[in-house]
Design a protein that fits this description.
This protein is an all-alpha fold. It is 67% helix and 0% strand. The protein is built from 18 helices and no strands. Helix 4 runs antiparallel to helix 8 and helix 8 runs antiparallel to helix 9. The chain is globular.
Length: 388
């Protein structure tokens, strides 16, 4: 992490030079985002046995934190430099464009999955797939819910990450203007918004027939996004690189295992009751304090484990694998939306063939292959080879 802000101390290049010279990508951002995409796929597959072994089963934070934090760091490169070079108007225009892209990605994925659930019919036990994703009212009362879909006031739980991300992006111009006034002001705004989520002061309605709010509260999760954002910009100082901090981070990660691992919770009433007692601090909707602490500890360990600047990630022995992960991480939006659809297809398929170890392995590995293929295909289209 200390090396993340190293380039900020280098002489600033002129705008023309910045446009001509493209800085090399940080392999840590892309590799860890790629890993996060694969983990999110497993987490989204209904009743996937492999999901019992993802990091979320051993601690308070999970791949969602990885995705949001690294998106913040990547946004500091893409959006932060644009703000420094062109100012608030161009930055705001770019943010609006990105929100527009994510909005239509959200709408398309919702329609595709709703159609898939309708075509799939019923599970072998007779339960409808429409019911499994809580989409029954959409098919029985489509008119008001289609309006809710387009206005983001109808957001079933499976479809809530992208709406959260749109709200966070909309906050970016305000955070960058605050940074220009004082490097401490963004931290104050981040904290105030996070506290508003902890005390449920603001709600984003998720459905018109109840008071349920979005599963991911943007005001809670913005804290993690902008923590990564301002760490990358150097506004927030990186934690020191020393063995005592590393020891503390490892201790935090190890200490959380008994409060999160299902095998311990099933076997120990003490840890089960303790985990329930600290639930407000591990709440995923509002991004509770212990989730933040756990993730920061994990991130500290991971970023130092891969060496300065991620050198160990590009070692010749493992580069063939990390190169693939980097490609997946570079196309995170396309891979994520594809993964949401693929996860449901895998779940439907496993419902009918059975969740044996063999079929589960085949299904998950096929899902990984589809995400990797998506990343390479999207990168090929973005390269516009027909212009050569």
């Amino acid at each position: 992490m200390p090396m993340l802000t190293k380039t900020l101390s280098e002489p600033a290049a002129t705008p023309d030079l910045q446009q001509r010279v493209k800085r090399p990508r940080d392999p840590r951002l892309d590799v860890f985002r790629g890993i996060g995409m694969l983990i999110i796929l497993l987490a989204h597959v209904p009743n996937d046995h492999w999901a019992l072994w993802i990091p979320a089963r051993f601690g308070f934070s999970d791949a969602t934190e990885m995705f949001v934090f690294l998106s913040g760091m990547a946004s500091a490169i893409a959006f932060g430099r644009l703000f420094d070079r062109e100012g608030i108007v161009m930055l705001s225009a770019r943010v609006v464009q990105r929100i527009w892209q994510i909005y239509w990605s959200h709408i398309c994925v919702f329609i595709i999955i709703a159609t898939l659930m309708a075509v799939a019919g019923n599970k072998p036990d007779g339960t409808s797939y429409i019911q499994s994703l809580n989409l029954v009212r959409l098919f029985t009362e489509p008119a008001p819910l289609l309006v809710g879909l387009m206005t983001l006031t109808y957001v079933p739980n499976y479809f809530d990450i992208l709406p959260m991300y749109m709200v966070i992006l909309a906050l970016m111009p305000f955070m960058l203007l605050a940074e220009r006034l004082s490097r401490y002001l963004p931290i104050l705004l981040m904290t105030v918004l996070w506290l508003s989520a902890q005390f449920s002061l603001v709600h984003f309605p998720a459905e018109p027939w109840s008071d349920r709010s979005w599963f991911f509260d943007p005001f809670g999760w913005q804290f993690l996004f902008f923590l990564g954002f301002f760490l990358m910009r150097g506004t927030i100082a990186s934690p020191p690189d020393n063995r005592w901090v590393m020891g503390l981070a490892i201790a935090i990660v190890v200490a959380t295992v008994p409060f999160a691992w299902y095998m311990v919770l099933d076997a120990s009433p003490f840890f089960r009751d303790a985990a329930q007692a600290i639930r407000p601090l591990t709440n995923k909707t509002t991004f509770g304090l212990l989730r933040l602490i756990h993730f920061v500890a994990l991130a500290y360990i991971a970023f130092h484990a891969v060496g300065v600047g991620g050198q160990r990630l590009i070692h010749p022995r493992i580069y063939p694998a990390t190169r693939v992960l980097m490609k997946v991480g570079q196309q995170s939006l396309a891979v994520f939306t594809t993964g949401m659809v693929v996860a449901q297809i895998i779940g439907i398929w496993l419902d009918h063939v059975g969740r044996t170890p063999l079929w589960t392995a085949v299904a998950n590995l096929t899902g990984f292959a589809l995400l990797i293929a998506t990343a390479y295909l999207v990168a090929w289209f973005k390269a516009a080879p027909w212009k050569a």
